[in-house]
Write a structure and sequence with these properties.
By secondary structure, this protein is mainly α. It contains 4 helices and no strands. The chain has helices spanning 2-73, 78-106, 109-130, 139-168. α1 runs antiparallel to α2 (78-106) and α1 (2-73) packs parallel to α3 (109-130). The radius of gyration is 30 Å and the shape is rod-shaped.
Length: 169
Amino acid sequence: MDAVIVGAAAGLLGAAVGAGGAIGAAAFAGRHQAKTQKDHWRRQFQRDTHVAFAVAWGNFHRTLIEASDLFRMGAIPAAEQLTSALTLADQQREKASDALSVLQLDGVRAVFMPAWQAHEHLVSLSHLLQSASDPNRRHEAVWAEVSRHVGAARQEYEHFIDAVNETNS
């Protein structure tokens, strides 16, 4: 009889340990799955954020380059075209600023800082082109500033791309 009780107790203990192990393994797998899912979501969010900024910045950059080409030509009929190009650039600036805000929320400073600096150079370029109609400003001096901002914006954008590649590797 003692052997039966001991055998039954051992069976119950074994079942309890087995059930506890199964529950523990399921909880561990669930936590691991949740962490994997969160990491996947975060990487996808980062990729989407980086792409959104790159596209918005590229559109803003392209419209400003077109506007600066019109300014460089300096022809009288180009004044209306320059105004139209700058209006379009301002619309693109808003989209780039929105994308930059989301990029800031992502919280990766190494990616955000060069993106912000590239964006700021384009904003300065936009303001410079909008004020270029001032007759007291020398065309050559304005063009030198335009060229400086274009070069600096491209350089900072390359830093942004490098930072994105480093965070994704």
